[in-house]
Amino acid sequence: MTATPAQNHADNNPHVETVDVLLIGGGIMSATLGTLLQELQPDLKIAVFERLSDVALESSNAWNNAGTGHAALCELNYMPEGKDGSVDPAKAISINEQFQQSRQLWSSLVEAGVLDAPSTFINSAPHMTFVRGEKDVAYLKKRYEALKDEPLFAGIEYSEDSRVINTWAPLLMQKRRKGEPFAATRVPAGTDVDFGALTRQLVDRLAENGADVRVNTEVRKLKRLSDGTWSVKYRRTIGRTPGEIRAKFVFVGAGGWALKLLQRSGIPEISGYGVFPIGGQFLKTSNPAVVAQHKAKVYSQASVGAPPMSVPHLDTRVVDGEASLLFGPFATFSPKFLKTGSWFDIVGQVRPGNLGPMLKVAWDNPSLITYLVGELLKNHKKKVDSLRTFMPTAKDEDWEIIQAGQRAQVMKKDPEKGGVLQFGTEVVTGADGTIAGLLGASPGASTAVSIMLGLLKTCFPDRIEGWEPRLRELIPSYGDTLNARPEVARESLDETAEALALTA
């Protein structure tokens, strides 16, 4: 299409600032992509826009997620039991491979002085799975048998002995009912990650190296110009001052608001997508006597009808150097796509292209609605009662409720079902590769490096080959897998553990 004189004038406005890369949203995804690009091509002009008063205040904030460092060591939803009773480790191995890439990049950045001391954002916390009842015990044993010889799961332990489990996590065993079948697995090499601290450190270094980081800056409109660049209209949240910036490439890493901004961009690839917001709450204790007895992240099976992100777990957390325990999550509902979003988010997303898939998802998931209603009816006492299935000695007065982040689960078209609810992350990219955005939730933060590596290949196909030598320096397993090479896997795990000061 030929541009009109008015369009040409608008596209070449010399008074509008321009950048090579605009990152919308100050979370771990934007921080990771910005860091990679700055390492690969330092002369790129990068800008980061965050609508809140600081970065990492939404999904990447330490109190808005469990900080597990998802490596599929303990999360059962990455390895469900098949209808024939079999268990396939493929997805669990894939998730672990992705987390190892994150560990490798963080190790490289620690050694280069880009990141602070490892203990400021990552700490050792064994990953455990604990189940009750004969059916789940049989499943967990099959899962253990399928994983114990996989190189990335080296060191996994299994036990049905209360005395052994008591040495792993005493709070699980104290006053446990006798005769109840139970079992646990444990991987000593698990971690607890403060993605808020990690994000802040990465963004601080981006700014030190020349990136233009702006908080209190909300993107309002995105328009692709005839020269292939993007005109992005924004507004300062303090003073309401409007502005415009031009970018050759735009990444939308705005959590739940990514859908809204991608819709405003007008790219046809976003048609058919919607999101379903699910909030969460955790029980938290900082009682030193309780915290000292539990040094692990313990996951179990999800309730019937519950989404995978609602798998109950009792977690060691280390935030700003202080240890505490979290239990949850308990699902909540809000029409907002972010904790600081709009009450109209859930209806404002509706378009002709996504209405059908969204209605089909609602029709096909009555158990999810039932689960959410049941969760909303739980008061503090009932939440602590749920905790007692993990920790029989839990006292109401030791635990407080904290509000976690909003998770916007992907709904999208499906050629067979009409519409599906997807519990993962997905990158949506414009046809010409000049804009991309991330939708979805877990295991996003833990696999941010892998997700952004995939984005680099898709959106920068003419540069990726030249970047590969530097990528292999930063991430030694780039372009290959670890699990298929036992010796290499062992060396990589040992090297990143040493660099990140992790002790099993």
UniProtKB/TrEMBL annotation:
Pathway assignment: Carbohydrate metabolism; tricarboxylic acid cycle; oxaloacetate from (S)-malate (quinone route): step 1/1
Keyword Transferase carried by entry: no
Keyword tags: FAD, Flavoprotein, Oxidoreductase, Tricarboxylic acid cycle
The EC number(s) this enzyme carries: 1.1.5.4
Example of a GO MF term: (S)-2-hydroxyglutarate dehydrogenase activity
Record-linked SUPFAM superfamilies: FAD/NAD(P)-binding domain
BP terms from Gene Ontology: tricarboxylic acid cycle
Reaction catalysed by this enzyme: (S)-malate + a quinone = a quinol + oxaloacetate
Cofactor(s) required, per the database record: FAD
Pfam families (alphabetical): Mqo
Family under the similarity heading: Belongs to the MQO family.
Protein name, entry field: Probable malate:quinone oxidoreductase
Organism: Microbacterium trichothecenolyticum
Gene expressing this chain: mqo
